[in-house]
Amino acid sequence: MAGIKDVARRAGVGVGTVSRALNGSGYISEETRKKILEAAKALDYQPNELAKNLYRNKTDFIGIMMPNLEHPFFASLLKHLELELYRYGYKCMVCSTEDIDNREREFLDMLKRNVMDGIIACVDLPGDEEPETERPVVTLERNWGGGIPMVHSDHAMGGKIAAQVMLEAGCRKVLHLYSQGKDSPFEQRHRVFREIMSAHGVQLVEAEAEWNHMSYGYDLEMARRCVRQYSDVDGIFASDVQAFGCMAAALEMGKRVPEDLQIVGYDGTEITRMTYPTLTCICQDLPRLAQVSVQTMVALLEGKPYPEDLVIPVALQKGGTVRWT
Amino acid sequence: MAGIKDVARRAGVGVGTVSRALNGSGYISEETRKKILEAAKALDYQPNELAKNLYRNKTDFIGIMMPNLEHPFFASLLKHLELELYRYGYKCMVCSTEDIDNREREFLDMLKRNVMDGIIACVDLPGDEEPETERPVVTLERNWGGGIPMVHSDHAMGGKIAAQVMLEAGCRKVLHLYSQGKDSPFEQRHRVFREIMSAHGVQLVEAEAEWNHMSYGYDLEMARRCVRQYSDVDGIFASDVQAFGCMAAALEMGKRVPEDLQIVGYDGTEITRMTYPTLTCICQDLPRLAQVSVQTMVALLEGKPYPEDLVIPVALQKGGTVRWT
DNA sequence: ATGAAAGCGCTAACAG
DNA sequence: CTGTTAGCGCTTTCAT
Q: Closest residue to C4 by CA to C1' distance?
C-alpha cells in the first residue's frame, strides 16, 4: 500500500506538499500539483483514513441504535437515516440492541472512545445515568432527558385522527393495543385516543404490549391472543404489525374486515400497502423524521443552532380495513 | 478527556506501563497494576480507539453493502449479520446503495483507505473490474468472480421444492416471476423450476423483474400488472413481496386463494406469517447465511482456512395459499 | 518489572 | 511556494 511518502518521493517533493496538493489546502504551483497528482495516480495512492482520523479526532461515523432491525418501522427508518447521513458525508454504524444485556451501554462507551462522532438513538437510555454528552446524541421517539434533542412524530395528532376515524366508522367497542415507555412521546397517542373515545361513549378494551419488545413474532402472537379474548369488539387500534396480527386472527375466526371489524394501524410502513384490503393507518413521516434528526446531529457537530421544532406531523392513509362513507 | 499520559502521571508510572497494565500484555507487578487501575477509574479513562486503530492498522469494522435496507429480506439479513458480527467482536458499517450512482465504488474505495477491515456484499460488483483484494470481501448471493467466496442458498433445491408443490397442488398454468443478475446463483432456482414444470406439461407464463430493483413499490406494482395480464393462471411462483402483490391483486379481482389460485413465495421472510392465509413459501435460512458469511470473513481476516461448503439448504413452509391434500 | 523512545501515516505550523 | 518537523494517543521494542 503506497503511502504519502511514496508519492512524495516519486514526485520529488516533500510530504507536506503532497498533503496540500491532495487536500487543496494552501498554495501549490500548478506544475508541482500536476506532478503529484500523476504520482498519486500511478501508485494508486489512497490516503490512510486512520491516520487522518487520529489527527482530526473525528471519524465521520454516526452510530445508529435500534431495538430491532427486522421490524418494518425500524428497517425503513434506518434506510432513510443512512441515506440522509450519506448526503452530509457521514457513514452509518449500526447497532441492534435486540434483547442483549448491556449492549446499549457498550455502544455508548464507544462514543467515548472516539469510535464515532455522535449517536442517533431509537432505544431507551440504559439505566438511570445521564449519558456523557461530550459527543452529541439525538434521539428519535425516546426521551433521554438532560437537554438531549428528541425528534418525534406528533402522536397527539395521531391519536386524535385515529379516534375520529373510529367515530366516523361508527365503532361502539374498540380494542386498543398500547405500550408505554420511559416518558415516551408515544403516550400522547394513547392518552388522546382514550380521551376522545370516552368522551363519545365508546367502550374501550385495552391490552398493553411489552415496551421495546419489537419483534414480529411477539406482536403477532399478542395480537392473536387479544382478538380471541375480546372477540366482541367492532374496532381495533394498534401498530401496523399488531393490526395485521389482529386481522389474520379475526379472518381465521370467520369475521369479515371491515364489515364485522374495522381496523386502524399505526406507523404506515410499507407492509400496510401490501395486502387486500390495504390497512387504514396513521402514517409517520419517516423521511422527514430521518431528515430532521440528521440535520440536528450535523448542527450539533458543527456547533450551530439546530431546528427548534422537532415534532413531525402524521397523516391518515385511508385503506380498506375501515368502512368509508 | 483523560489520556494515557494523565493516567501515567496520576499513577506515578510511565505510559508504557499503563498500556501493559490495561491490556494485560507483558509483566506487571500486582501492586502497580492496582495503582494504575485506580487511576484509570478515577479519571474515567477511555482509550482512544483512533490511536489504537492507526497502530494496529485495523478498525474491527466490517462493511455491509445492500441494495435496499427496507426490503424484508435484506432487513432481516442485516439483523442476523449484525448480531453475528457482534459475537466475533466486529462492528457493522452499513451502506445501502439504493439506486445511487457510484455508491458501490465509493464504498469499495473506503476499504482501500482502511476505514474497515472487510466487506460483506449483497450487491453486484460495480463495473467489470476486479475488486482490490488487499482486504477481504465475501459476497452473499452475488457472484464477484476472482476467487471471492460467495455464500448462498441452495436455489436449485428451492426451485425443485417449489415445482413439486405446484405439481402436487395440481396447477396447470403457472405464472413465474423471475429476475436474473450477473451469473447469479438465483438462476438455478428459475432453471430447475422451469425444467420440472415443462417436464410435467405444466404451462408456464413468465415475467422478468428488473434485477436489483429491490423495493416494495416496484415489486407490488409489477405483481399487480402481471396478475391482471395473465388472469387465467391457477398458480404463481414469485418472491415473498411479489407473491403478496399477486395475492392482493387477485383478491381484488374477486378470486379466491387458494381455491382459484395457488401461490408459492420465495424467501420466507417474517411477512409470510403475518396474514391469513399465511403464505406458502420456500424459506431461506437467514441466520445460517449470516453465520457462514461472517465465519468466512473472520477466517479470511485471520488468515485461516474458511468453510468449504458455502451453500445453505432451504426449506418449505406450508401455508394457506396452497391446497394441501 | 518498568521507563524511554521509536513509530503507525497523516496534517499543519513554521521556516526558508 | 515548498521542505522540515512536531505532534495526534497509543503500542511495543529495547535497554535498564
A: B14
Nearest one of B309, B187, B178, B321 to B248, comparing CA atoms: B321
Domain A4-49 is in which class? mainly alpha
Q: Which residue has the cell 365503532?
A: A171
Contact A63, A119 (CB under 8 A): yes
Q: How many Å apart are CA B186 and CA B291, to the nearest integer?
A: 20
Q: Flag whether residue B57 sits within 8 Å of chain A, measured between CB atoms.
A: yes
pLDDT tens column, A181-231: 888 899 999 999 999 999 999 999 999 998 877 889 999 999 999 999 999
Which one of 3.40.50.2300, 3.30.365.10, 3.40.50.720, 3.30.360.10 gives the CATH number of domain B155-285?
3.40.50.2300
Q: Residue written as cell 429491490? A: B214
pTM metric for this prediction:
0.96
Distance separating alpha carbons of residues B224 and B221, to the nearest angstrom: 5
What span, in angstroms and rounded, lies between the C-alpha atoms of A285 and A244? 20
Q: Are strands A91-96 and B91-96 parallel, antiparallel or unpaired?
A: antiparallel
Tell me the CA end-to-end span of chain B in Å, nearest whole number: 69
> Is B110 in Cβ contact with A247 (below 8 Å)?
no
Residue A274 beta carbon within 7 A of nucleic strand D: no
| Residue whose Cα is closest to the C1' of C7 | B55
**Contact residues, A window 63-92, toward B, CB-based 8 Å cutoff:** 68-70, 72, 75-76, 78-79, 82-83, 86, 91-92
**How far off is chain B from A152, nearest CA to CA, in Å?**
20
Number of residues in chain B: 325
